[in-house]
Design a protein that fits this description.
This protein is of the alpha/beta class. Helices cover 41% and strands 11% of the residues. The radius of gyration is 27 Å and the shape is globular.
């Protein structure tokens, strides 16, 4: 339906001097998509108000609405090119008038959870990189072809947008920060098995892939409803003042069919289920747009440095039922940031893991991607963190991912599944072996993870899976290395001294042979 439109937009952006990569293409598409979506949402709200005999107060003043500056229409419903700006006039209006106007919404917003605040935040962080007003006009006309009316249309748009994010992940080293393979996310969500009424948190949300997949899982009716007082969250995570409308039952599903969810269930999903924090500006914008396209109209995504939060200040009202995350690894944090954590380390991923454990409620469930060296590193921070994880949480599952799972990452990873509140008694390992070299043309797929999901339910042993009693884990190192007992004979490595002795003996032997040859000359 809309695939060709997305292709046409990318074709124009490739010719644009101000856009040099897939990251730029996605960023520039995102702010235009957001404004088109906002226009559709406001029109929908205005129509509902009219039907109810009420007056609707528009968020945007008339000169800044999509229908005025971007796509003014004639009586025939088509864009009126006599009234529509183009060229330098259009570019200058966007840069000098529209963006400053939208950025000021942040100052006018009541709190950071409102849609007004997010409008101001987005347009204070990104810039229009489309230098040609004529290219901008062409892109706007393609964007105007998109529709957000039905769930089927939103579902297709979300898939196309996810494809753009995936292309960013394949575009280079930096792009990989934004994309976690969706089959891996879906497997993590299925194992954690969230339920409606539980809160789900990703403090390193990137493009919000975990939150979007969890939303799709719950909206499809797979999560049983839990009636609990999770709404009594403090001001820090107050309900979003969403523009979501109350829909008649039954609620429409991802592909247009009913889900079996009530309108109250959907309201919980919209307003009080998904929470995220993202530090980087581009990722923040993409996360907001990705969640909107998946059906969350005013996402609870904060633009902040998660690690700047002092763990000593965390209260019960700040905690969540579920953590799903793939925090950045390999990064380094400043000394003052490390002071927020009981276990001091410059490794970003290890700080995030401490953060996630702290932010889980008692009985809360977590699934976190981390590089596999965490399981065996012998530095003090790694050993202390493994000890903390094993003693404060039940680390029940470790999924060992093959090299190539993450495009361009260059490191192997594992997924830690744990439940907070009781110490670990037994760890179940699963060694994922797709039977092929992973890469851009052979990415991870859902079928690769089907056996893991099935076996994990009972933690069954197999040629690829086994269990380790916590009592057998060395208390001096807390080594959690992946060691498949069915992996064949163990390789016995010789000591460095043995190797040096053999080299010396071979040198003596070589000297004798060379001497014999010289005697024959």
């Amino acid at each position: 339906m809309f695939e060709q439109t997305f292709r046409n937009i990318d074709d124009i952006l490739r010719k644009e001097a101000g856009c040099a990569s897939e990251l730029d293409y996605t960023e520039q598409s995102s702010w235009l998509l957001f404004l088109k979506y906002l226009d559709a949402l406001e029109h929908s709200k205005a129509m509902e108000a009219e039907l109810e005999g009420k007056k609707y107060t528009w968020l945007l003043d008339a000169p800044y609405r999509w229908e005025t500056w971007a796509a003014p229409k004639g009586k025939d419903g088509k864009i009126d090119h006599n009234a529509a700006m183009t060229g330098d006039d259009l570019r200058d209006f966007v840069n000098q008038t529209l963006f400053p106007y939208l950025h000021r919404f942040k100052e006018k917003a009541d709190n950071s959870n409102t849609l007004e605040y997010k409008i101001g935040e987005i347009f204070g962080e990104i810039k229009n990189k489309i230098q040609s007003g004529y290219n901008l006009r062409d892109i706007i006309e393609h964007i105007d072809e998109l529709r957000f009316g039905s769930q089927v249309e939103k579902h297709e748009l979300s898939h196309l947008y996810e494809a753009k994010i995936k292309n960013m992940g394949n575009a280079g080293r930096n792009g990989g920060e934004y994309y976690t393979p969706r089959p891996l996310i879906r497997a993590m969500v299925q194992v954690v098995n969230p339920k409606i009424g539980e809160t789900i948190y990703d403090g390193a949300c990137g493009s919000a892939g975990f939150l979007c997949e969890a939303f799709d899982y719950l909206r499809s009716g797979k999560g049983q409803v839990v009636r609990q007082a999770h709404h009594e969250r403090g001001e820090k995570t107050a309900r979003t003042e969403s523009l979501s409308s109350v829909r008649p039952e039954p609620v429409e599903g991802l592909n247009g069919g009913p889900t079996g969810l009530s309108t109250s269930d959907l309201k919980i999903l919209q307003e009080a289920t998904f929470y995220g924090i993202e530090k980087k500006s581009l990722a923040y914008v993409i996360a907001i747009m990705n969640m909107i396209l998946h059906g969350i109209e005013a996402p609870n995504i904060a633009h902040a440095n998660t690690l700047a939060l002092n763990l000593a200040d965390v209260q019960e009202k700040d905690r969540y039922d579920i953590v799903l995350a793939n925090p950045p690894f390999g990064g380094k944090e400043r000394k003052e940031v490390q002071q927020n954590f009981p276990i001091k380390t410059g490794e970003t991923a290890f700080l995030f893991l401490q953060h996630f454990i702290k932010f889980l409620k008692a009985g809360g469930r977590g699934a976190v991607v981390i590089k596999n060296t965490f399981l065996s590193n012998t530095d003090n921070a790694s050993v202390s963190l493994r000890k903390h994880l094993l003693e404060s949480c039940n680390l029940h599952t470790v999924l060992d991912c093959p090299g190539g799972t993450f495009q361009g990452a260059g490191v192997k990873t594992v997924v830690l599944f744990f439940e907070k509140g009781a110490p670990t008694r037994k760890v179940w390992y699963y060694q994922l072996e797709p039977g092929r070299n992973m890469g851009k043309t052979n990415p991870l797929n859902d079928a690769d993870l089907a056996e893991f999901i099935a076996l994990q339910k009972t933690c069954a042993d197999s040629p690829k899976s086994w269990s380790v009693d916590a009592a057998s884990i060395a208390p001096d190192t807390y080594d959690l290395s992946v060691k498949n007992p069915d992996g064949g004979e163990a390789v016995v490595h010789r000591s460095p001294q043995d190797i040096m002795d053999e080299i010396a003996a071979l040198d003596v032997e070589s000297a004798e042979v060379l001497g014999n040859i010289m005697a024959l000359l």
